[in-house]
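Module 6 notes. Inverse folding takes a fixed backbone as the condition and produces residue identities as the prediction. Think of it as a translation problem where the source language is geometry and the target language is the twenty amino acids. Below is one complete input and output pair. Work through it position by position during the lab.
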């Protein structure tokens, strides 16, 4: 009887209702600064947890990157875990590898597994080639900002 009621409710009014499908995502945080930014690990996890709640994602504990500059070993392990999870939520997209070729390899891996990368601070995600292009545009803007004047000269 209960099974019949559940099936009937799922097909209520001829519409197939989503049954609270929740995607499982692993967090990714840093123990070092990135692009001149630094956030304590507990703050990074709070931001990721909030992002997951707002986007109905099941938050699986975060992997914490090693402190050595340029190290992305933990992120590489997350990429290997992709077959068993639905995606990764990083605190910031600027925690990805700084080398464009390495980021492209990451995007290709995510696309090949039909998964999604999420970025809590920027409140965005990418799971399609066009969305990864948008991520690359944000990287180019960030790199360009360091070459922009910080002040304007006053008029004579």
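Target side of the pair, the amino acids:
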């Amino acid at each position: 009887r209960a099974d019949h009621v559940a099936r009937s409710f799922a097909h209520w009014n001829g519409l197939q209702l989503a049954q609270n499908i929740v995607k499982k995502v692993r967090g990714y945080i840093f123990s070092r600064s990135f692009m001149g930014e630094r956030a304590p690990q507990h703050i990074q996890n709070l931001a990721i947890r909030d992002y997951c709640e707002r986007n109905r994602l099941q938050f699986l504990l975060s992997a914490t990157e090693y402190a050595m500059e340029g190290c992305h070993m933990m992120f590489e392990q997350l990429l290997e875990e992709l077959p068993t999870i639905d995606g990764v939520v990083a605190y910031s997209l600027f925690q990805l590898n700084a080398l464009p070729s390495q980021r492209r390899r990451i995007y290709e891996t995510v696309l090949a597994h039909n998964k999604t990368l999420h970025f809590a601070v920027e409140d965005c995600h990418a799971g399609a080639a066009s969305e990864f292009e948008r991520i690359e545009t944000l990287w180019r803007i960030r790199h360009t900002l360091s070459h922009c004047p910080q002040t304007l000269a006053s008029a004579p």
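Reference fact for the lab report: Confidence is low (pLDDT under 50) at residues 2-18.
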